[in-house]
Amino acid sequence: MLEVDREQVLAHRIAAQGLHRVESDPAALAVFDLGLQSTQRETAEVALAARVSGEPTEESLVDDPRFVLAWTHRGAPHFHRRDALPAVTASLVPLDESDAMARMLFQKRMVEAAGISATDGLFTAARAIRRVVDKPMTKGAVSTAVTKIIPPGLSYWCRGCQATHILEQVMRLAAIHGGVRLEAGVSPATLAPIEGRGPMRTEPDPAAATSVVVNYLRLHGPATPAEAAGFVGTKTGVAKRMWPAELTEVSVDGRKAFLPPQDVPSLENPPAPGFVRLLPPWDPFLQSRDRDLLVPDRARQKEVWKIIGNPGALLVHGEVAGTWRTKAGGGKRLDFLMSPFWTLSAAIRAEAGAEAERVASVRGFPDLRVSWK
């Protein structure tokens, strides 16, 4: 069995995820094999700035017709290559009722109480969304219209909105099956029909589901079925049914994990990550489910992954060495607050300052100020 240590694994993932900046075209980045999450403002553009070579520009994924934004993995918004969206949609059809219920995540109990199976609820909502969304519509308008035509158990009284509306997770999971995407760069959240959307598919595609796990292992491996399940948003037992047939078993500091065989040479001898990067909240590098490996200190984990309002991560020579946040100052200036976990040299701080310039540029700020906590 191949034995590797934590540093090798991190270096391998950093290379696999394009953080060495060897690609100039965003579409060539391997992170789009899974999709690039865009949960908070401009996180996707900042993630690209950390990966794409050349001078950063304000041109974003919003302006690139090769990409489309949709609620996909775990119901979170992701940018995908437009031509890959049919395959992504197929991969998101639950394998069975157990899988469908697991994907309901934080609203699982509400779905269980609805008097309808999770599978039926998912596709009932998808059909309603397809019927309602025949043009761009705000999320609120879609929710109001869909709630009127779905079974009562799939909606609830929301104190925040002071209205009855469809369960949030059901809506997010169903939208892609209803042939609906998100309008990128538009606020409030707006849904629109996917161009050329075909008939809704309800039959599971095991091969498509397995492709998600393969891509997870390629970008976040070596990994375990439990970790892949965490990314998919399902049970470990379901992830085992999605598990690829040909994998290499690896020991990571004594822990058993798996990797596609073609990635073994890169894991054995990964390029040294001798650089600094500013990773946005929910950056692909931070999406690995083995957080103890990414950030061994449990107290530091709580600083990187918060319940609400994650900061960005300061990546220094392969290690998460701190966090960072921004605040617009004076309209044209972006203020950065860097919070390192340990003392960093003047040279490292200078590199972080250069990365902050890239972030400010892609966010359209001509000026910036960097402060260190």
Protein model, in words:
The model has no long low-confidence stretch (mean pLDDT 95). The protein folds into two domains: 192 residues, no CATH class; 97 residues, no CATH class. The protein is built from 15 helices and 16 strands. Helix 6 packs across helix 8. A five-stranded mixed β-sheet has the order 12-13-14-15-16, sandwiched between helices. It has a three-stranded mixed β-sheet with strand order 1-10-11. By secondary structure, it is an alpha+beta fold. Helices cover 35% and strands 20% of the residues. The radius of gyration is 21 Å and the shape is globular. Strand 6 and strand 7 form a beta hairpin.
Number of strands: 16
Please count the helical segments: 15
Strand order of the largest sheet: 12-13-14-15-16
Mean pLDDT: 95
User: Could you say which overall geometry the principal axes of the C-alpha atoms support?
Assistant: globular
Could you tell me the radius of gyration in angstroms? 21 Å
Task: Describe the protein's topology.
Blueprint: E1 2-4, H1 6-16, E2 36-37, H2 43-49, E3 67-71, E4 77-81, H3 85-91, H4 97-102, H5 108-112, H6 118-132, E5 137-138, H7 139-147, E6 155-158, E7 163-166, H8 168-177, E8 180-182, E9 190-193, H9 206-220, H10 225-232, H11 236-241, E10 248-252, E11 255-259, H12 264-268, E12 276-279, H13 291-294, H14 298-304, E13 312-316, E14 319-329, E15 333-340, H15 346-362, E16 367-372
Parallel strand pairs: 1-10, 15-16
Antiparallel strand pairs: 2-4, 3-4, 5-9, 6-7, 8-9, 10-11, 12-13, 13-14, 14-15
